[in-house]
Automatic annotation (TrEMBL):
Keywords: Acetylation, Hydrolase. It catalyses: L-glutamine + H2O = L-glutamate + NH4(+). This is Glutaminase. It comes from the Bacteria. It holds the Pfam family Glutaminase. Substrate binds at residues 66, 118, 163, 170, 194, 246, 264. Its EC number is 3.5.1.2. Homotetramer. The keyword Acetylation applies. Belongs to the glutaminase family. Signal peptide: none annotated. One of its GO terms (biological process) is L-glutamine catabolic process. The gene is ylaM. GO terms for molecular function: glutaminase activity.
Length: 310
């Protein structure tokens, strides 16, 4: 890859996608997220040797939100093994919005359909072990700090408090899971852990690096150290394809064709197996909660660089 040419193309595609920020709006159900300037758009690409290319608002911090569901799943799988984890949460995509409650009651087992929707991620948070919430969060943060090489990753307190105060829907999901016996740990503590990991603050550059470690099947870019078992990395990438963009995952697979996970603060982590990790930040969201300009940018980049895996 000619780095100068790639860098120019990235800049051009980012600029071309910028107008799409006008089409959506920022998430407002978490009041702190509603304060963010919606016309931001940043992208970073991390290559297998750790080289980072970027354009636009690639160093603006934002909260991971649902992107963190990948990392809590990694920790839960490493601590409990996949048999235990998948006894409590399913592996199937849903056609419903990410915070939907309906299938929890209508499916026979009451298991959340997958770990990428809120109910599934709350069940996963319940499986993360530790003496207290701080220790359980540290397990997720330690993994992400190692993967990014950024020891300063931490949570955005304002976003955390804002979500905690307004999370009636997530509380309803968690109490339903407790009643069904899916959630075995303390409900409020588990919700607290979930809100905290959603508020971990990153930049598009951090996200690109995280995506590259997954692209390398769990091996660190600079040192070659294995930080995630290969099978766990494979499970995550598969969920990114089938469920990572909520109920737009099928459309995204057709239009973009890259494993990806988005969050309602406007981030998207994309992973091109063996080739690169991509981090996008564009807080203006479509009606399904995905970054409008971010999705467009990935579509253009995927076409230009032939990144689609299908
Ligand atoms: N913290 C957010 C929530 O629970 C995450 C949702 C998302 O990013 N889709 O609603």
């Amino acid at each position: 890859m000619d780095l100068k040419q790639a860098s120019d193309q990235l800049e051009q595609i980012r600029n071309q996608s910028l107008e799409f920020t006008y089409m959506g709006s920022v998430a407002s159900y978490i009041p702190e997220l509603a304060k963010v300037e919606r016309h931001q758009l940043g992208v970073a690409v991390c290559l297998p040797d750790g080289t980072i290319l970027s354009a636009g608002d690639a160093e603006v911090p934002f909260s991971m939100q649902s992107i963190s569901k990948i990392f809590s799943l990694i920790v839960a799988l490493c601590q409990n093994g996949k048999d235990y984890v998948f006894r409590h949460v399913g592996k199937e995509p849903t056609g419903d919005p990410f915070n939907s409650i309906i299938k929890l009651e209508t499916t026979e087992s009451h298991k959340p359909l997958n770990p990428m929707i809120n109910a599934g991620a709350i069940a996963v948070a319940g499986m993360i072990r530790g003496a207290n919430v701080d220790e359980r969060l540290d397990a997720v943060l330690a993994l992400m700090r190692k993967m990014t090489g950024n020891p300063h990753l931490s949570i955005n307190q304002a976003v955390y408090c804002s979500e905690k105060k307004t999370a009636d829907r997530n509380r309803a999901l968690a109490w339903f899971l407790k009643d069904s016996g899916i959630l075995e740990t303390d409900v409020e503590e588990t919700l607290d852990l979930y809100f905290r990991h959603c508020s971990i603050e990153v930049t598009a550059k951090d996200v690109a690096t995280l995506g590259m470690v997954l692209a390398a099947d769990g091996i660190l870019v600079n040192t070659g150290e294995r930080v995630i078992p290969e099978e766990v990395a494979r499970i995550c990438k598969t969920f990114m394809v089938t469920c990572g963009m909520y109920n737009a995952s099928g459309e995204f697979a057709i239009d973009v064709g890259i494993p990806a996970k988005s969050g309602v603060a406007g981030g998207i982590m994309a992973t091109v197996p063996q080739r690169m990790g991509i981090g996008v930040f564009g807080p203006s969201l479509d009606e399904k909660g995905n970054s409008v300009a971010g999705v467009k940018l990935l579509e253009l980049l995927s076409k230009e660089w032939k990144l689609g895996i299908f």
